[in-house]
Design a protein that fits this description.
The longest helix is centred in the first third of the chain and has 26 residues. With 80 residues, this protein is mostly helical. The chain has 2 domains: 44 residues; 31 residues. 0% of the residues are buried. It has 3 helices and no strands.
């Protein structure tokens, strides 16, 4: 799909061109999302997408254990 933007009145400035490009890009993305939803195409990343890519399950268990340990230490200090 090709979109032509005509400048009405005044000279085109870098700011106007950038704004127009951003507006066209947003409009194209919205159209694409509508079409993918209509066709049943999944386009969203899973909620844990980055977590799975960055850290292994073993590493995340260690992180969780450390956080739980720190929380227990805080609770014990509050009890004193």
């Amino acid at each position: 799909m090709f979109v032509c933007v005509c400048q009405r009145g005044g000279a085109a400035t870098p700011h106007n061109q950038s704004s127009t490009t951003s507006t066209q890009g947003l409009a194209a993305a919205k159209v694409a999302i509508e079409r993918m939803n209509k066709e049943g195409i999944k386009w969203k990343r899973p909620a844990d997408y980055y977590a799975e890519m960055v850290k292994s399950d073993g590493h995340m268990r260690k992180v969780k254990d450390q956080l739980m340990y720190q929380q227990r230490q805080i609770e014990q200090a509050d009890e004193r």
